[in-house]
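re the bet — no i am not wrong, look at it urself. input seq straight from the record:
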Amino acid sequence: MRECHDLFKGLESLTDYCGGDGTMARAIAKAHPHLKCNVLDLPKVIDKAPAHDVINFVGGDMFHTIPPAQAVMLKDDEDCVKILAQCKKAIPSREEGGKVIIIEVLVNPSLGPIIYESQVLFDVVMMTVTKGGQRDENSWAEIFKKAGFSDYKIVKKLGARAVFEVYP
């Protein structure tokens, strides 16, 4: 939160996709008390989430609907283009402050050989265990375009992870 405080500046509402028990949403709400936070996850996950007075927990299927919010935050994915297309439907236009926030590993050889090797090995694990994988910036740009977004920027690089803002 300290590194990305400005990322949430000007937002009024946020949906944390696959937000689990709401840990990240609670941290965001604590740092930004004006922000209305939704946590979207499978009903079986939401049923176990601890109640919170500020966080709205929504059980659902993110392939069909995402609660409307000014921003949607993603941290991991498998069916990225489909999910991002749903996110795009849930947010307002860029002029109205709409954006998707993605926190994800960004494969980047410039981080040095040890981190790059770790990223590539983790990519092999992701492809073996799930349908997902780690991506470089060009791969992300292609996914954003396929999902119908007009633009993106990398707001912050945090070691091997990057924080993206993606705009409708």
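see?? The chain is about 30% helix and 25% strand. told u. also Helices lie at 23-31, 43-46, 80-90, 113-129, 137-146. so pay up
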